[in-house]
Amino acid sequence: MNYKKRISYLSFLLLGLSLSAQTPIDQKATKKTQNLLANLHEISSQGFMFGHQDDQAYGVGWKAEEGRSDVKETAGSFPAVHGWDVGSRLDRESNLDDIRFSNMKTWIKKAYKMGTINTLSWHLDNLTTGTNSWDKTPSVADILPGGSKHAEFVEQLDLLAEMLEGMRTTFTRIPIVFRPWHEHNGDWFWWGKGNCTEAEYIALFQFTVDYLKNEKNIHHLLYAFSPDRSRLRLDTIPEQNYLYGYPGDEYVDIIGIDNYGDVGRIGGPNTPEQQQENFIQSLKLITKIAREKGKVAALTETGLEGVTKPDWFTEIILNPIKANDQEIDIAWVLVWRNANTTHHYAPYAGHPSVPDFQKFDEDPLTYFEKDMNNPYKRGKALKSSDK
User: Fold this and answer.
1) Which of 2, 14, 92, 340 has the most beta carbons within 10 angstroms of its beta carbon?
2) How far apart are CA 362 and CA 31, in angstroms?
C-alpha cells in the first residue's frame, strides 16, 4: 500500500464522493461490471495497471502463438490491461490489424480468466466513402438518425452487440471498457474536430451508448472518453478544453486521455523538460476532472515508438507519476502494439529497455497480471502482498 496515495484517496472521499456513488452509467450494469468500476477507483488510489495493445495476438517476430506475450517474456507476467480494437468493419473476419475476431474473443476470455482487464476501441471505417477511419470526409451527419448511412451504421452496431454478447464464459458476460470515438479533438479521423460539429460528435457518442445499452441490452460495458493531448491546450482553461465534445456524465465512466507527444517523442515543438511538465499536468487534469465527477481517470493510450529511450518506463512514465502521486490517480497506462522491430511500444526479448522495464514492473506503484487477484469481485482486485 502506498501511504501517500491512500491519503490522497481518503481526501477524495471526504469531498463527498463516496464509494456508493461509484456506479456505472448503465443502471442495469451486471454485478461484475459494477464491481470492476469500484475496483478501478480503488486501484487508482494505490497505483496503476500496465496495459498493452494486442498483447496476446502478436509481438516482434511472432504471431498467434499460444501463451506468448512480449510483455510476459520481458517482465515475467502478462499486462494487467489488454487492449483490443474492433475496427474496421464487423462484417469481416478480421480487424484492421489482421486479428481474427474469433481469436480476439478467445484472448479476451483468457485475459478475463487470468484476472486482468480488457479495453476495446473502434476504428470504424468511414461509411460515407467506404474507406478507412482516417478518411476525413465528413460522415457523422450521414450516420446519425435521418442520415443516408444511418441504417448501415446501425448494422455495424448490431454486429458489435453480437460480438460483445459473445464475450462471455458459460455463465458470465465479461466486463469490457469500451472506448469509442477516441481522439475526437484531433482532425485525423472522420469523427474528429473539423470533420463534424461538436454537437454532431456528442450525438454520435450518445447514440452509440444508448443503442448498445437500451436497444441491444448490452450491460457489461464501462464507457471511456479519451481526447488526445496534442490538441489539448494546458495553458488556458484546460478543463474546458478537455471537455470539448463531452457527451455528459450520464454517458461516461472513464475520464481518459491519449498522449504520445509528451513522452519522449523527438522532433516536437517542446523540450524534454517541457514535455515532462505537460505530461504531469495532463494527468493532474484528468485526475481533477475525474474526482470532481466521481469517475475513474486513465492514460488510455501512450508510448514511444521503438522505445528508443532505454529508461523510458521509469524516467518518462513512472517517476513523474510517483513524484506527484497525491495529485495523480490513474487506474491504468496502456501502451500501443508491438508490430515489428521499429513499430513497437513495449520491450521484446533482447531490447535495450528490458532492464528498465523490469524495474518498472517491480515498483510497488505498478500492477501487472501477477499482481492482480480478481478485479470483478469488490475489494479483491489486487493481491494483498507487497512487491
Assistant:
1) 2
2) 32
Q: Does residue 269 register a pLDDT over 90?
A: no
| 207 Cβ neighbours under 8 A, 6+ residues apart | 144, 145
- Cβ pair 179, 300 in contact under 8 A: yes
**What is the mean pLDDT of the segment spanning 39-45?**
97
CA angle 29, 35, 38 (to 5 degrees): 110
The C-alpha cell that represents 55 in the structure block = 498483447
User: What confidence score (pLDDT) does residue 22 get?
Assistant: 81
Residue 309: pLDDT band with limits 50, 70, 90: very high
Give yes or no for residue 21 having a pLDDT over 80: no
* Cα gap 227→246, rounded to integer Å: 9
Alpha carbon separation from 104 to 12, 53, 65, 110, 208 (Å, rounded): 37, 12, 13, 10, 22
Query: What is the number of residues in the chain?
Result: 387
Residue 214 DSSP symbol? I
Count of CB atoms situated within 10 Å of the CB of 51? 30
User: Is residue 342 classed exposed, middle or buried when 0-12, 13-18 and 19+ CB atoms within 10 A define those classes?
Assistant: exposed
Q: How far apart are CA 70 and CA 58, in angstroms?
A: 8
Q: Residue 384's pLDDT is what?
A: 81
Instruction: Give residue for cell 488526445.
Output: 228
Taking alpha carbons only, the member of 233, 222, 247 closest to residue 285 is 233
The answer to whether 238 touches 285, Cβ cutoff 8 Å, is: yes
**3-state SS assignment for residue 252:** coil
Cβ atoms 117, 167 nearer than 8 A: no
Across 294-305, average pLDDT:
98
Q: What is the spatial distance between Cα 221 and Cα 205, in angstroms, rounded to a whole number?
A: 14
Residue from 364, 362, 380 nearest 372 by CA: 380
